[in-house]
Specification:
Helix content: 40-55%
Strand content: 15-25%
Shape: elongated
Distance between the termini: 5 Å
CATH topology: 434 Repressor (Amino-terminal Domain)
CATH class: Mainly Alpha
Length: 77
């Protein structure tokens, strides 16, 4: 099975946890604009950033993005 990364789910996670973009930015030590780019799917997070975001929000890295199944690679599942 092969997959691709879909849309960022950060907006939904922040809403569910009652955390603002500014609050997350403060916790990460980055600008509000940077977090806004992730939330609005203007930029994908690096793996390191995703690890930090996941740790701050107490979620799995896999929960930060939609994971879309796109097919079978090399005839195997």
């Amino acid at each position: 099975m092969t997959v691709k990364v879909g849309r960022c789910l950060l907006r939904d996670i922040l809403k569910d946890q009652g955390i603002s973009i500014q609050q997350l930015a403060n916790r990460l030590g980055v600008s509000r604009q940077q977090v806004s780019k992730y939330v609005n799917d203007k930029k994908k997070m690096s793996f390191e950033t995703a690890l930090n975001v996941a740790a701050v929000l107490n979620v799995s890295v896999l929960e930060l993005y939609e994971i879309i199944e796109v097919g079978i690679k090399n005839g195997r599942q």
